[in-house]
Amino acid sequence: MDNDRWLWTLGQELARHQLGPDAVRHVVAEAAAHLRDSGQPALRAFGTPEGYAAAVAESLAARYGRPARPAPGRVRLSARGITKRYRRRTILRSVDLTVRAGEVAAVVGANGAGKSTFLRICAGLLTPDAGEVMLDGRLGYCPQDAGTYDFLLPDEQFVLIGAGRGLDRERSKQIGRAGAAALQWRPAAGVQTRHLSGGTRQKLNLVMASMGEPDVLLLDEPYQGFDRGTYLDFWQHVWRWRDEGRAVVVVTHLLSQLDQVDQVLDLTPASEGAAA
Amino acid sequence: MKILTVAEMAIREMVRRRAVLALLLALPLAFYLVRRGDQVGQSIRFLLIGLAWAVSTAALFASGTSRPIEPRLRLSGYASHHLYLGRLAAMWLLGIVVAAPFFALVAIDHGDQVRLGAVALAMLFAVTVAAPFGLLIGALVPRELEGTLLLLVVVGLQMMIDPADALTKVTPFWSSREIATYAVDHTGDEYLTRGLVHGLAFTILATAVVALLSTLRLRVRLRAATSA
Description:
Largest sheet of chain A: 5 strands, parallel
Low-confidence stretches of chain B: none
CATH superfamily of the largest domain in chain A: P-loop containing nucleotide triphosphate hydrolases
Shape of chain A: globular
Oligomer: heterodimer
Number of strands of chain B: 1
C-alpha cells in the first residue's frame, strides 16, 4: 500500500469512527506531514490505517468525550407487554420497548430468542398474543432476508419501493443509487438481484428500507455478509439516522457496537441468561 | 400508479424467466398438437385447457414469489389491493400475449371451420379465469408444491370429467369450454351466454376471495399514535 492510498484509507476509517470533517482533515494532514518529513512508508510509521484510526479516535474520545448529540425527541415506537406464543412455547413474555426520535435501540438475544418475531410485531406484521404496539410516523423495515425480487434489477427495486412512497421513477433511482454509494456499492447496469453477492444483496435490502425518509427504522440483522468496512459504514448510517432524529431499532447478535446505542433489549430468556 | 408499478415489476420478473416463458407456450401447444388428429373441437378444447393451466400456474408461482416480499411492500406505502390487482393485471396481460399466437394458429389451421370471434372470446375467458384462479390457489395454499398439485387435481378433473355431469359446471374453466362449443359446433347462443356468465361469476368470486385473504394476511396490526 503506497502512502497516498494509506492516507486515503485513514480518512475513510476516521470518518467511520464518527470524527467530523475538520478533525479528519487535520489528522490526515498531520500524518502526511510526518510521512513527508520522515520519508518512511506509512505502514512502518503508523501501522495499518484501520488500527491507527481506531487509536486516534479512542484518544480523541478520551480527551474530549463524544460529540454532543441532540436530545431525544418524542416517542416514535412503543411496544408494551408483548407476549407471543407458538403452540405451547412462549417466545416473548411481556416485552416492553420504547424508542424516541433520535435514539438507537439494539435487540439482542440467543438464536431462537424471538428477536425477528419481536421486530415483526413492532412492524405490525404479526399479531402478539398480548400487548400492543404504538407507532408515530412512517416506518421503514429491513427484513433479515427475502426482501427483494430475484429477477429485478436494483434500479427496479428502488422504483418499486419508491412508488409505494409516492416518489417518481427518476427520484426513486436517484435516492436508491445515493444510498448504495454510501454503502460503497455502485449497482452495475443489467445485473439482476439474483446475481448479487449475499452482502451486496443486504446492502440493497438496507437501501430499500431507508427510502422515503422513514421516522422509524426497524432493521433485522441487516449487515449479514458485509465486509468489515461496510459493517462500519452501516453503523455510520445508523448514527446519522439517529442524529437526523429517526428512531432506529437494530436486531443484532454482534455485541461490539452495543456501547454506542442508547438502549439494549436483551431477549435471552432469564434462565439461559443466568446460565450463560 | 401503484397498481401499474406492481404490474410492471411482476411482468418484468416473469419475462426474464425465459424457460418459464417457453414452457408457458409449450403447454398449450402440446395439448393442441396431441389432439390435432382428432376432431377440431377436441384440439381447441385441449388448447384452451392448456392455456388456462399455463396461466394459472404462472399466477400461482407469481403469488408464491411475491408472498415473502409483500409485507415489506405493504409497509412501504402499498395497500393490499395495489398488490393483488397489480399482479392480476400482469397475469392477464401475460396470458393474452401467450394466447395471441395460438389464436393465429387456430385461425390458420381451422379458420374456415369455426367461429373465430368466439374462439378468441374463449381464449380470453380462459385467461380471464385462470389468472385469479392461480392467485386464489396461491393465497389458499402458500407452499408451491402443494399449490401445484392442487392445480393439477383441478385441471385433471376438468379434462376427465364427463361433460354431461352436473359437476362440470363448478369446475373453473367450464366457461371457456362452453364458449368453445359455441365456436366449434355452431350451437345456439345459450352456450355463449352460459359461458360468459360462468366466466364472469367465477372471475369475480375468485378475485373477491383473493382480496379477502390478501387483506387479512397483509393487515398492519399497529396503533397509530394520536397527535400531541
